[in-house]
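REQUEST FORM: STRUCTURE PREDICTION
Request ID: SP-0412
Submitted by: Lab K.M.
Chain count: 1
Length (residues): 501
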Amino acid sequence: MCFVAPIPSPAALAPVDAGELAGQALADLRDDLGELGFVARSARARVRSAAAELERVESDLQPATLAVLRDQLGSADGRLRALCGRLSRAAARSDLDDLAATKAAVADQLRAESGLVGALATAADWQSPSFLHSISPAAGRHAGRIAPHWTDYKRDRHLDAAEYERAYVEELIDGPPDVRALLTSCGMAAFTTIVGSLHMAHRLAGPLLLGHGLYHETKELLERSFPGAVCQVDERDTRALLRTIRTLRPSAVFLDTLCNTRWAPLPDVAAVLGELRDRDMVVVLDNTALSAGFQPFRLLGAAEHPRLIVFESLLKYPQLGLDRVNAGVILGRGADAEALERDREHLGTNIGDAAVQSLPPPSRRVLERRLARLGRNAELLARRLAAATSGHSAVRVFHPALAEHPEQKSARGRPFRGACVSIASTPERERRFMAGAFAEARARGVPLIGGSSFGFDVTRLYLTAARTHHGEAFVRVAAGTEDRMAVEELAGVLAAALARS
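STATUS: Completed
RESULT:
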């Protein structure tokens, strides 16, 4: 199954009359309530599953413990059932302000409920669950399911993560049947697990080729860990990238599938994999900025080489804006996945059980809908901001959908081209824009957040790479899921602030 959400054309993003905007906004908000309904129903399913598991092991638990968990799970189930009803009733209404207020209120409560569900679902469990006992087990809801030396120590692996990992591949990954997912405690933990595993296997003994736009923290780790072995290349120049691969013959290539830098490069991953086909070389891709909108393993097909390893921060798009827990995922095949799982155990980077239970379950339908909205809003904001800076060479706006972007032609056929817009100027002007944007937003009553990360319901501004020597600072506009009318209002705010900066 492929991601086929439509890409908005420039004409589709142009201002339209108020009636049409209102109609689009209504459809958007109803879609948003549907997404929240999915989150609420999923959380409720986890509560009910945890309650059923406790009933299965009720004779193994202390009566007081069982009573308090039954009471708390029942209360959580009641609240989530009420939220589902509220969303269903709201979706039948047509008042935009009412729907927007319902979206904001329910999303905020679901954030809190998700954390509570994760804690309640795992409250009776142990981090070191027993596999044998003389009188009573110490395994919580997993009593009778613990395998010695395999699932008896959750730092190594556990049943909650294994279930999510299987669902993640089934729902979100296109490619060979031997692709496996491995959860980690965050996206950076996924990266350090990959580097640690490759290093211990002596797979990083030769030169390392890095895209210049690699995320600054991962770039810094590689440069400090392998001094003198790192070679950077501008991934915007595909010919130079492939030529460097041929001449350097690196032991590994590290690229971001969409770079989180001021230039927002979109490397030609297909060309890199094609160049390395049948060569026993490692390619490591950070797919955080594109998520399910880009499927690297489908490009590789059944070929065994190069050895492709992909990772993603699950704090971004797959968490559906909840920003509830840190989580990351590694994707690998066959022997690579086995080695990564073994080394994740030794490196101590596995995800916690409560964190898994706090994540929304993987759903391609839900995630693709959200990516389509985020992408639409990012492209609208990018075009409005680019128009506001037309003729001003001191300010540059970057997004792969803009005609000025080097990869705009190749990006045109992609279903998702990222949800972040880069604004590059002088440090002083970037700070003036940030301050002006929030002043303008407050004056107009438009929601706007100053903060890191991306993939949220409300658009965020952030001065990225401001404290590092391994990347160039820029203002990142991380588009939110605002409805069509709200994103027009936001575009006006940002364009006015940028024009005045």
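NOTES: Residues 1-12 have pLDDT under 50 and may be disordered.
Reviewed by: T.R.
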